[in-house]
Each structure stands twice: as C-alpha cells, then as structure tokens.
Write a structure and sequence with these properties.
single chain, alpha+beta, Arc Repressor Mutant, subunit A, Umud Fragment, subunit A, nine-stranded mixed beta sheet, two-stranded antiparallel ribbon, 11 strands, 18% helix, elongated
Length: 229
C-alpha cells in the first residue's frame, strides 16, 4: 500500500467519526448519519469526502453490505489492524449477513407521485429479509398513501424493490406512469395495463396502448419494512 496523502481538516473529521462509530456500535455510520454529524445536508457532499478518503488510501468501500465503509488508516495515516473492529458489537460473521439498502425516494400507494431518485437514507436489514435476491439490485422507497393496505402495505412503510423491467401478472410492482411513481399489482389486459390497488374503496389505474403514455416498471416489490414508534 502506498504512502497516503495528507487529509484536509474535514476529511480527518469524517474519518475519525467513522472509526469512532464502528468502535462504539460495531458497524459504520450511514451517509445520512455522517452528514448529520458533519452538518452536511447533501448526500453528494458526504460522498465527495468518502471518495477523497478512498483516493488517498484511508478508506475502502465494498458492496451494499453494512460493513461497506472500512477504514484502512487512522487520520494520522497509521495502518489499522485487520482485527481492530472484529470484537466490537456484532461479529464479522453476523455483519456479513447485514446489508445497507438505499432509500431513494417516495412512491404513491394511491395516485402516482414523482419519486425522488437521490439516496435519502440507508436501511440496515438482515439477509433473510431479501431471500436470495442480490442486495446490489435492491432499493427502498417510502410509501405514501393507503391504496395497498389490503396487501399489508401502509402509509409510511418502506418497500424493498428488486430492479427489473418486467413482472408477471398479479405481482406487486413499482411503476412509473408519465414520470410519476406508484406501487400497485400489475395486470396486462389486451391493449391496456391495469395497475390494481389493494383497497376496495379505490379504483385501478388503466394505461391504454393508444394513449401513448410513458409507462415503465421500476421493479418488483420483494419486501416491506415498518418502523413502530
């Protein structure tokens, strides 16, 4: 490993926070947590610091697992031993089964709404919640509305979506209709597509071929996460 370059004051602060968080909790902080600690409102601003730490050989970022941020050196440039964090919090074996899933915006369980595509938050979940799905293909959306309540999807829930451009009839999908996002059950009916809510008080959304409305499947819903206050 080459001799690392010197860090700026802000880069030193970010790296020290990551190291302290791992020592205190057994896993690294989320991008949102780093931003809150540093007073950085933009996730892109946090990512700029992380990329700089990578370029300077102080930090390694792996895939979407919860140990994605791995400090290689402390802020003074001293190498960090491989075993430094292994006994703190969860074990390495346990942490390898935990993933970080990006929450990329909101989606309507009702009338379509515009989805925000920037990462807003990170959810840490166990591998079992995703089944055999590759975590790198999964993103989360926050549900707004109650059109899917009979399928157990409620306002404020997070849904996990597996990126794919097609789905079978009857599957719950996240879909874009004319640039706006919604979650519904998908049915193809000849020259039209029916996006069916799971709420008997609500009407389906029909997209007819002759209307030339831009419609795209973002992916299949593979899980729901709910935080109880």
């Amino acid at each position: 490993m080459t001799t690392p370059k010197k860090l700026t004051k802000r880069q030193r602060m970010v790296l020290r926070y990551i190291i302290d968080h791992i020592q205190d909790h057994g896993f690294p902080p989320t991008i949102r947590e780093i931003g809150d600690h540093m007073g950085i409102k933009s996730t892109n601003g946090v990512n700029d610091h992380l990329k700089a730490l990578e370029r300077k050989d102080y930090l390694e970022r792996k895939d979407a697992k919860s140990r994605a941020l791995k400090p290689l050196r402390n802020e003074d440039g001293d190498l960090i031993e491989e075993t430094t964090f292994s006994s703190v919090g969860a074990s390495n074996e346990d942490m390898e089964d935990v993933y970080q899933i990006p929450v990329v915006g909101r989606i309507a369980a009702g009338l379509p709404i515009t989805a925000i595509e920037n990462t807003e938050n990170i959810l840490r979940i166990g591998q079992g919640m995703l089944g055999r799905a590759d975590s790198s293909d999964i993103f989360a959306l926050t549900v707004s509305g109650d059109s899917m309540i009979e399928d157990g999807i409620f306002d404020g829930d997070y849904i996990f979506v597996k990126r794919q451009q097609d789905a079978r009839d009857g599957e719950i999908v996240a879909a874009m209709v004319d640039g706006e996002a919604t979650v519904k059950r998908l049915f193809r009916e000849g020259e039209r597509v029916r996006l069916q809510p799971a709420n008997s008080a609500m009407e389906p959304i029909y997209v007819h071929a002759h209307e030339a409305r831009e419609t795209m499947i973002l992916g299949k819903v593979v899980g729901v996460y709910r935080q109880l206050v």
